[in-house]
Amino acid sequence: MTYSNNIATYKILYDLKVEVKVQDNIYGIPLDDLFLMAARINKKRSFLFVSKVLGKHIPIHPAKGILVGALLAARYVEERTKKELEITSTLISQFMKNEMNDLTISSFIDDSNPIVIGFAETATALGHAFFEAFNDADYFHTTREWLDGVEPAITFEEEHSHATSHRAYINQELLDSNREIILVDDELTTGKTALNIIRSIQAKFPRNTYTVVSILDWRSDEQIAQFKSLEAELGIEIHSVSLVKGTVSVEGHANLNGNEQESLSTTGDIVQNVSYHEISNPSPTNFKDERKATYTSFTGRFGLTAHENRDASEWIVKTGKQLAELRTGRTLVLGTGEYMYLPMKIASYMGEGVFYHSTTRSPIYPMLKENYGATNRYSFPDPMKHTIRNYVYNISPREYDDLFLFFERKVESEQLDALLEELKRAQISNINVIYFHEGSE
């Protein structure tokens, strides 16, 4: 990467080059603190901003993902009210200095009652962390999953994605109001996903105000004009809030040709000590998957109030401390797919030397290259649905002593065979599979 006069140029792979022109970075956060770049195996978009703060493709301190959500919430308030918040300087300082010890962020937004929506799959945790800043709000995240026999309240498309269809399984009464809706995503590149969900919601549950919140906003003038056009067409207001705003231009091609590297080669084999841990789910939903396994309401997948989220805090702290007793050394907590927030939050209470990220559907081209966003890759069928390919990136062999693998609901051991076999290449001896069962202690 080269940087001058607010222009950063990234030579990603072969002759693929991306130029970023920064127009607004009000908190002065270095781009290097926010993302790396990688080539994307996708005909619709050849590159990817690989976040260093979300806990999706790159391991992070778990509190980092919580902190960036709070910082984005502070930015939202300051942008909408044009007033500075006292907490903002503290959040910026912690973020810039990586001061993650004893991080406690309580709700600090009292005078707003929005409905917050996080986008699957990458921004489910970011949306939840953003939502936690409100004393009185509701949250849910979209999903790519189908629930048999359940009609989604809304559906919409993410046109540039590898998995395009989104849906929301919530009680329709939640949307049947004039409350502001805040859409939370990690980045806006074209803004089409936000436009699509606004159209979908407005057709069934009309209201006056939407706000689109993101860490990065790369929309062009033409794409911003499309938001203005939709405002005029539907008679609504659409606000936008971001930590960094600018534009992106792309030159060249990565010339991938299907020659994809997998994870770093390892020598010898490893004996995996795999153990399974069922943790009580004190807040089951009425929704079950095809195997009749019950989801937890704490994820926000089916709607979550601020009060219910606060009720979950004691259980989350207790669970984190309980799992910390199973650790033997340097630890990786791995969420799965859309199931990101609860594992990340629990990991933040598991002690020092704990890192967090998640499996993903996103196909990124791996390359062992300095400052590249996917230095290695592990590929396996989704344990929940073997027809879907999943990946996890950036785990070096022998980097961790313990792996805590979280699932939103029970997974049978034979469903994990392919994943565990692939993870042998990571040379992690102790693997703990964590899922929740219905009932309370």
Give a brief description.
By secondary structure, the chain is of the alpha/beta class.
Distance between the termini: 52 Å
Shape: globular
- How many H/I helical runs? 8
In terms of quaternary structure, the protein is single chain
Helix-strand string = EEEEEHHEHEEEEHEHEEEEEHEHEEEEHE
Tell me roughly what share of residues is in helical segments: 10-25%
Spatial sequence of strands, sheet with the most strands: 1-2-3-12-11-10-6-7-16
Low-confidence stretches: none
What would you report as the Rg, rounded to the nearest angstrom? 21 Å
The CATH architecture classification of the largest domain is 3-Layer(aba) Sandwich
What about the largest sheet? 9 strands, mixed
- Overall number of strands: 22
Tally of distinct domains: 2
Which CATH top level class of the largest domain fits? Answer: Alpha Beta
Structural class: alpha/beta
* Arithmetic mean of pLDDT: 89
Percentage beta strand: 25-35%
The name CATH uses for the topology of the largest domain is: Rossmann fold
InterPro entries: PRTase-like, PRTase_2, PRTase_dom, TRSP_dom, UCP020967
Organism: Robertmurraya kyonggiensis
Domain Orotate phosphoribosyltransferase-like: 34-247
Domain TRSP: 299-423
